[in-house]
Amino acid sequence: MPSSKSDIRAIVTEAAIVVIAGLGIGLAANELSPRGLALSRNYFPAGTNQAPVAPRQVQAAPVAADTNESPAAAELSERLRGKGLRELKRSQAEALLRDLRSRDGRIVFVDARNPDDYQDGHIPGAYELDPYHPEKELGNVLPVCLAAEKVVVYCTGGDCEDSDTAAILLRDGGVPGGKLFVYGGGITEWQAAHLPVETGVRNSGINSK
Amino acid sequence: MWRRRTFETTAVLARWTLGALFVYMGLKKAMHPEEFLKLTRQYEMVHSPFLLNSIAAGLPWFEAFCGMLLLLGIAVRGTALTLVAVLVPFTWLVWRRALALQALRAIPFCAVKFDCGCGAGEVFICRKLAENILLILVSCWLLSGVSRAFCARHALFSGKSP
What is the 3-state secondary structure (H, E, C) of B29-84? Predict the structure, then answer.
């Protein structure tokens, strides 16, 4: 262990240098990184920066269960209500995808996960909108959503709030709240119900089970 | 002589292991800063978006930087002290979060499993706490001045480089 006062002082000074250099390098690396965060941006709008009280693991809901009775579902509904967003159940989302209007852009699906997850599998025809990097896609997605009659936003489901954030981005961009819906079950529930999933880019035509 | 060599080898391996672990965990988080941001948010440490973003943006690179210093053997004791100063409050935060989850889920403490933002995904809390205590002990050991072999500059101010 450090034996003398000067030894302790040297170690503390060294630690201070490490901290200052480390923080400087950390923030500079964030600025230079293409995946870096924008420090001044609020990534959790219309709520707060407070986390959900009890995060739950993302679980696929039983296929037959499409009700809103479980505590997790009630929590989800309450969360969306608190943000002024409207919730969509799986059966409703499925009906909208099968609706002919989804083929001519009057019903639009928006995937609010990161690009890698999107490529791995998304609801067929869904647009990509990563709410943490909206500058990439918002310019393309917003006009489509403004022109649509209904917009369905989803992410992983469960505790995932990225769909809420993306929906709020669209709402802030001028999409009326009345035609914005969040599919709370997300892709996890969708895939568990063996509904169609498209891989790769939008309208790739490549479907996976 | 033999015992001393074994001791020195163990100390160097401990430093390299700790350094490699921090580099790996730091870079893993730095590659997905938005995921780390969401995980940092769960601790409710700060409510200012700027502070929250700064922590989530800077901490992963900071960890990787400290890991690099240990691997190269630069400012080893200062880095070890920094790691203790980071690990102790973080372990306390993880423990506090686990207690809250235990109360909400009404399950035994060691059955609590969540992603603490440590870079290893979801882990059982008791295992995580044991790991963190081990990391703190290794850092304290390095703080004592061991592991001087294979160091670029063990101490910044002593003027003595091995």
Answer: HHHCHHHHHHHHHCCCCCCCHHHHHHHHHHHHHHHHHHHHHHHHCECHHHHHHHHH
